[in-house]
Structure formats: C-alpha cells, structure tokens
Amino acid sequence: MSTGVDILYRHKALLAPEVCAIDAVRAAICARLGLRDEAERRYRAGLEFCEAQRLPRDAELCRRGLADVGV
To answer: 25 with 46: CB under 8 angstroms?
Structure first.
C-alpha cells in the first residue's frame, strides 16, 4: 500500500508551490485509499474554491480528479 507521500509524488503537479487548492491534494489521497465519496466531496470543494479565486490550472486538476473518481 502506498503512503500519502508516494501518492503526492505521483501527482507532481500538486506539489508545485503555486498550487493553492489543498483540497485537490486531500482528494487525491482519499481516492487512492478507495474513499470515493470523500474524494468527490474534496474535489468539489476544491473546484468551488478554484473557480471563486480564478485559479484555472487548479480547477482543471479538480475536474480531472472528479473524472477519475467517476463523477
């Protein structure tokens, strides 16, 4: 089983210092752990935040995450 650190390194885009949507990171960890509902909730919260703050790159990460968890 992968650790949270392993998951983050696989999602290197999430480690960039300019990324503000921590919910996308939390959601990726939840998705990897099989917590689909929690991952969806976190991706949606991250998407809402990113759209409100006009962070298109981070919003796209959340959209991709939602697609990956099957929403």
So the answer is: no
How many separate helices (H) and strands (E) can be counted in the chain?
A: 4, 0
User: What span, in angstroms and rounded, lies between the C-alpha atoms of 13 and 58?
Assistant: 9
Identify the band that residue 36 occupies on the pLDDT scale cut at 50, 70 and 90: very high
**Distances, alpha carbon 71 to alpha carbons 16, 39, 58, 63, 68, in Å:** 25, 10, 18, 9, 8
Structural domain boundaries in the chain: 4-68
pTM for the full predicted model: 0.70
